[in-house]
């Protein structure tokens, strides 16, 4: 049997980090088994579903590199099919018409509440003759749920979980206006899509009981279930915005790489020994539901940043340049010098050594994208002032004859100057850094010289000597 899984988000908000992880686990499971990963948009809540949220789901999945197979299924568009199955169940006696009015149900609910009881629909229309139906009431269709015994799910993550059937009442499957209800639509869709494994957050575990009953009644083959524990904050509390419960797009904006995100999300709930850095290829090879943990995982920004740094150092320099340029443009707030991409590429090796995010990279590289004359920060201005125009001028003059403009050649010229003046290297290198970058910290200064090129470097020194 070939594996078919799905990611079934409701487009009522952004694609949050928990959704991203659910999608990743489904995708890995499909790719590991050479199966199919499908996407179903559960857009039946018309008031809360938005086009923007649907786009955010597509964008987020694409950015994460989680490509889906076949056409996207939109749940709302399948309403007629859901109603058809509901009517078939009605015809088979597995469902019945219920003529209770909303007011009646509300009164019973209030009564139960006042008595301190949990309200469940009492099944009053279950065996009642429809001839008794009050005039003018449009009935709902309810599922005739089993009343005796229990329902057990053999969950691939949670193990065996059982609920007594008397705890579950007769679920409405088709509303009075003919629209299907959520749990019912999910069952029909999963069946029609041939879903073999339902992998999702464990907030849906209770739905799985009702869904199991519906599968059995409808004569549909049951899928396997795997309910993944939710993600908590570092303090163990439910994940909130403060903890990182943000949209996937927020992580992209903060400058995380998709491969780092995949690795991080994978480790939120799944493990392979003590391995922390796991490539996507390895993840596909190793992934299985047997190593999904049973307790909630904790979101940890420091770990994510650390992993991101690892992936930034592994990333191709030209790709990093492409990703950093738009960030530089935003930071510099104007058009960038034409040489910026070349300068950035030349300096990428030392720059990426220290960066945890693309945004860090952009910040550290911003001096490359600035136009002359630079506006040195307070620390750099102080360094230049202490060094004095004469020394900065001398640095310029020492470098001016260098024609083979490489890090070693410029270093040789600076060392010769240092020796001639009887100074320590730092006394020259610091004002040189201040003149070239406008800052007191930067990548190794001779790499900076090489990246800026001869004309720009000498020009910046000239500016600083004034
Ligand atoms: N639409 C549900 C959600 O976004 C998922 C339902 C399911 O996976 O069965 O939480």
Task: Describe the protein in words.
With 466 residues, this protein is mainly alpha-helical. It folds into 4 domains: 157 residues, Rossmann fold, CATH 3.40.50; 105 residues, Glutamyl-tRNA Synthetase, Domain 3 (Glutamyl-tRNA Synthetase, domain 3, Alpha-Beta Complex), CATH 3.90.800; 54 residues; 88 residues, Arc Repressor Mutant, subunit A (Orthogonal Bundle), CATH 1.10.10. 49% of the residues lie in helices and 11% in strands. The chain has 18 helices and 12 strands. It has a 3-stranded parallel β-sheet with strand order 1-2-3. Strands 4-5-8 form a 3-stranded antiparallel β-sheet. The protein has a two-stranded antiparallel sheet with strand order 6-7. Strand 2, helix 2 and strand 3 form a beta-alpha-beta unit. The longest helix is centred in the C-terminal third of the chain and has 22 residues. The mean pLDDT is 96. The chain binds glutamic acid (GLU). Glutamic acid binds next to loops.
Short characterization:
This protein is mainly α and 466 residues long.
- End-to-end Cα distance, whole Å, is 77 Å
The whole-angstrom Rg is 32 Å
- Which second-level CATH architecture of the largest domain applies? 3-Layer(aba) Sandwich
Could you spell the SSE succession in H and E letters?
A: EHEHEHEHEEEEHEHEEHHHEHHHHHHHHH
The average pLDDT value, as a whole number, equals 96
Tell me the number of structural domains. Answer: 4
| Hetero ligands | glutamic acid
The proportion of residues forming helix, as a percent range, comes to 40-55%
- How many strands, what sense, and barrel or not for the largest sheet? 3 strands, parallel
In total, the number of strands is: 12
